[in-house]
Amino acid sequence: MSELELRQTTVDAEAAHDREWARRGRPRAGTVIAGAFVVLLLAATAFPAFVATQDPNAISAADAFQPPSTAHWFGTDESGRDIYSRIVAGTGTSLLIGVTATVIGLALGLLLGVLASFGGRVVDFGVGRLVEVLFAFPGLLLALLVIVVAGPGPVTATIAVGLSTAPGYARIIRGQLVSIRSSQYVEAARVLGRPPRRILIAHLLPNALLPLVVLGTLGIGQAIVWAAALSYLGLGAQPPAAEWGAMLSAGRTYLQTAWWMTVFPGLAIVGTTIATTVLGRALARRERGAR
Amino acid sequence: MTGRSAGTGVPAPRRGAPGRAARHLALLLGGAVFVLWAVATLTFFAIRLIPGDPAQAILGGPGSQASQEALDQVRRDYGLDQPLVVQYLAMLGRLVTGDLGTSYSLKVPVAELLGAQIGGTLLLAMCSLATAWVLALGLSLWSTGRGRVASALGQGIELVAAALPHFWLAAVLIAVFSTGLGWFPPVATGTPAGFVLPVTTLAIPLAGFLAQVMRESLLDAMRQPFVVSARARGESALGIRFRHTIRHAALPGISLSGWALGWLLSGAVVVETIFAMPGLGRTLLQAVTLRDIPVVTGVVLLVALVYVVMTVLTDLVARVADPRLAQEGAR
Amino acid sequence: MRTATPPARRTRAIGLIAVALAGGVLLAGCQAGEAPVSEEPVSGGTLRYASGDAEPSCLDPHVGGNYPQALLASQFLESLVSRDESGEIIPWLAESWEASADGLSWEFTLRDDVEFTDGTPFDAEAVKVNMEHLKDPATQSSTGYLALGKVDRVEVVASDVARFVLTAPDSALLESLSQPWLAIESPAGLARGMEENCQAPIGTGAFVVDGWVKQERVSLVRNDDYVSPPADAAHDGPAYLEAIDWRFVPDAASRYAALQGGQVDVIDNPQPDTIAAADESGAFAWLDAPRPGASNRIELNSSQAPFDDERVREAFIAAAAVDDGIDALYFGTAARSFSALSSVEALAYSEPALFETDLERADALLDEAGWTERDDDGTRMKDGARLVLRFPVSTNQSVPAEQSLFEQVQAAAKEAGFDVQISLLDLSSWYGALFAHEYEIVSAPYTKVGPDVLRILYHSDSITPAPSGYFANLAQVNNPEIDALLASAASTSDPAERAAQYEQAQRLILGGHYLLPLYDQQNSFLLSPKVQGARALPTVSTPSFSDAWLAE
What residue ranges define each of the domains in chain B, with the CATH number in brackets? Predict the structure, then answer.
């Protein structure tokens, strides 16, 4: 079992406990806050110039290391750049890394999962072993290997993180497809003589798709955290890009002098992870409740 | 979500219990050997894709000014002038005899190098795993079945904990407990006190994950008939919690441990660097920087081995903890 | 345990206050001109050193030859000669030396009372064996091998006289020999073979390698028979310290926290902000020891477009404002350099006028060079090509403050229409980018004693890559006049002529707009107040603890 499967089971169990809430259809307070936060993130991604107060890359050595003030809400960094504006500007980059990595992981997982559940026994066994092998490379280790082979950089880091999440998705997807396959309406379609490919496209994938989206929401936050770790090791985003992980690791250097350089990007990462997870769970509850 | 090592569909033949167990064990071990072989093979060929000349890595690493003669000599010595297939078979042959080769940069046998490092990393990982378990169990026991506020608070703590990046947490812990309060040293010295901060750094996010899944299984367990009947018998709430439900809460935790160990080894790369501890993570990072291929391969294999062993172990433990699984056989 | 800690801490705090008070009294005593009682060195104790430099893969500095090796080797190996603070070469293991009139033969008279710590006598034969070891390809020496480029062989004239026979006169020979990468090791130690010698080389130094736990520490213990300090040492005889516990702590923040917590006594490579804070509060002593050789500078690759046009190079230098950034990022701990050489070098030549920031001039120069159009980003264009400068940065060689400075250079150059593309790379990838000429600007440190480093960095011979792909002339300076000056300065025996030729060469190099000097190669140490008598050797600025003691 992996972290993703864990999240999946957590969500399942939670949905089971929260049937009444789901039925009543009133969202929880936490969900509302998380939703508002995500809307804020999306606004920062779509209109960074509008949300930010200053040019995120405007350097002013004279203003370096300013603590938070009305002029600089979150203070300034070592080059006198406005940290609030950089966090806003970094939203897009960080979300892009998180989302892309998750999409890569999901796509690979989907491919493997479909192969495993429809390729017959031998293929299923093979895919199972492959997934097992991928699991034997823990996340950061796999990422480091990918980076050694392909060279460091944001694209490699994203791919690496995506790749390391793929086996988790693969197992969940396989499990879901197998359970849907044995469900009554697919059984009915088969009895009616529909070809397997039709069944896959018409019945299985649509049914598996919504859970996938939910699963993805749950994975985004962790993908951002892993990408941040790669940035800390100097293998992630490249300057002057205002990526959160890179900001965080730059700020760590000055923790004793300028705490705000570390705390605010850290809050952005933690906040995003929590918000996407809470939202993902709410989506899952909804989806379960609707079934 | 149970302890099956792989969620693959190997059909379960109907046989007697001993035969079933033996077959299950054989499958597990066979799978383990396969995984190790595949990891070795994948790593071997992936590493051929790395730009750069291994001979150069051997001769003082990047930026060295080795002569052509020295490069040629090294290529002969290390068999780098042989066809790829020959090199691959030679590597497999060495691996079977337990020989991991010689480090390019440190010029010492990889097995010796990693043998000296793995103890520290495993100790770190095990201590962190145990601490995370205790924290997660404590949190989930405390926060379940006590009403909305405790539940919401518990969930909030889990979410925050699971979202904390290691290197950030480490920095904050050092700032507070070393620089601020002076309780624990920021550099691990091999003393128990030096172990506290690294273990805490690794344990907190992991505890967040574990608590999430434990709380849900606790909730499940508390609805079970035997808990209801125990309550009817008049056992105290706390007693019920400890006697009946922990085992259920622990089950998913056990099956998560294989994954958790891999996750902890990932975290060790960062934690070992920050707290200046010797270990596999730091060795790997350095080997990656220096393109020390035998060491990278060695670490990957070793981690894979640990993972495989953990998977087999958790599978067995889960079977002991939940006899229903043994009944189910190797699915 | 938690309940036990606060009182213990209080005691320590009181102790600290007591030490501080005592220190204050002492200081007052000193100023009053009285002989300070406890300034007498105290014997005993273990010095705990936390190093942020990479852990060497081999402790023998003959193998490869990088700075981390030099840091450690300075504690247990010694060289034939050393350098004093004024830059004069002074005796160490060699008592005196004399060059022949043609400069092709040097005779070194050696100390005859020195033994290696394994009991092997130090003599001319040992010197010969060491030089042969350095020149042997199997040793894989890079730094030492290059420094001995003109040395053909070493002859044993008498047991205490060694003659170096050269293929060409070498004015840098003494400076080369003063470096830890050419230190003298026990022939018996070398004979053990590389694997064993790498673990614990045997020298004549004040300390002996006792053990090396990989990724953790090197244990050094006192050499009780030590007799051979350099001529400028503060005392003769064995070190005061009983041992040095040399730990590898890669993370700068952890290192400083360990120093603050009293877990270690000395740290190297501190962050500039912590140097400033420590220096201001007086909590820790700051040992500022810039490395010799080249300054830290940004090199402009003049071999390919756009920097094959000198006007574009000049424009970049005029646009790249660094003064404010250096002040802010280094908290006043680093002085701006205007020279290709370290300020440690007596022959360093500075020309500040060449490096004044002037955006208008940059714009004018670029217009003149034909980079007149601009795209949407404000980047200049010429014949459809964008004015892109690729800037590979090694995360292993550039500290965070320097990386931030490069980001500021990036922003400043953008104003003039340059698109500076920084890529942060690990060491192997970084060299890969250089070898493939995938760079327009780059910054690379180079440490060597003496101005001969100019020949390595700017002579056209250094354009041709070694078989490994390495080349030192990153600016790709290819100027026969500079070549002639550097070659002649390297072989002249007349100090005045040498100085004049190096100055002229530096004028041409700086005037050709090949580089943007930033500051000296930063090399700082923070010492706990109880560490007394430590210094940096004036050769390659590695710390020396043979005169150091731990005050009570």
Answer: 118-330 (1.10.3720.10)
Express each pLDDT in A230-247 by its tens digit: 777 767 777 777 788 888
Q: How distant is the alpha carbon of residue B289 from its chain centre?
A: 22
- Tell me, what DSSP letter sits at residue B53? -
Alpha-carbon dihedral angle through residues C419, C425, C427, C428, given to the nearest 10 degrees: -100
Q: What is the pLDDT of residues C162-173, one digit of tens each?
A: 999 999 999 999
Contact C192, C200 (CB under 8 A): no
CB contact under 8 A, C55 and B186: no
> Can you tell me the distance from the alpha carbon of B204 to that of B317, in angstroms, rounded to the nearest whole number?
24
In contact, C422 and C391? CB cutoff 8 Å:
yes
The C-alpha angle with vertex C329 and arms to C324 and C333, in degrees rounded to 5, equals 95
Contacts of A261 in chain B (CB under 8 A): none
- Return the beta strands (E) in C206-265 as ranges: 207-213, 217-222, 243-248
Q: pLDDT-derived band of residue C32, with 50, 70 and 90 as boundaries? A: very low
Q: Which sequence spans correspond to the domains of chain A? A: 47-264
Helices (H), chain A: 3-17, 19-24, 29-46, 48-51, 83-118, 120-135, 139-150, 154-181, 184-191, 196-199, 205-232, 244-253, 260-290
- Return the structure tokens found at B58: 């051997």
Which of residues C484 and A216 earns the better pLDDT score? C484
Residue that the structure tokens 């792909």 belong to: C469
Overall average pLDDT of the A119-131 stretch:
79
Is residue A147 less than 8 Å (CB to CB) from chain B? yes
Chain B interface includes C395 (CB < 8 A): no
DSSP code, position A150: H
Q: Which residues contact B100 (CB under 8 A, 6 or more apart)?
A: B94, B109, B110, B111, B114, B294, B297, B298, B301
Q: How far is CA B216 from CA A153, B135, B223, in A?
A: 39, 16, 11
Tell which residue, A245, A165, A156, A4, has the closest CA to residue B212: A4
Cα gap B265→B267, rounded to integer Å: 5
pLDDT of residue C80: 96
What's the ipTM? 0.77
Distance in Å, alpha carbon of C409 to nearest chain A alpha carbon: 10
Interface of B with C in 129-188 (CB under 8 A): 171, 174-175, 178-179, 182-183, 185-187
Check CB contact under 8 Å for A64 and C406: no
Question: What is the rounded (10 degree) CA torsion for B124, B128, B129, B133?
Answer: 160
Does domain A47-264 fall into CATH 1.10.3720.10? yes
Position C13 pLDDT exceeds 80: no
Q: What is the rounded CA–CA span in Å between residue C58 and residue C70?
A: 11
The structure tokens 């060289």 sit at: C79
Q: Give the position of tokens 């080389």.
A: C201
Q: Find the range with the poorest average confidence among A119-133, B60-74, B261-275.
A: B60-74
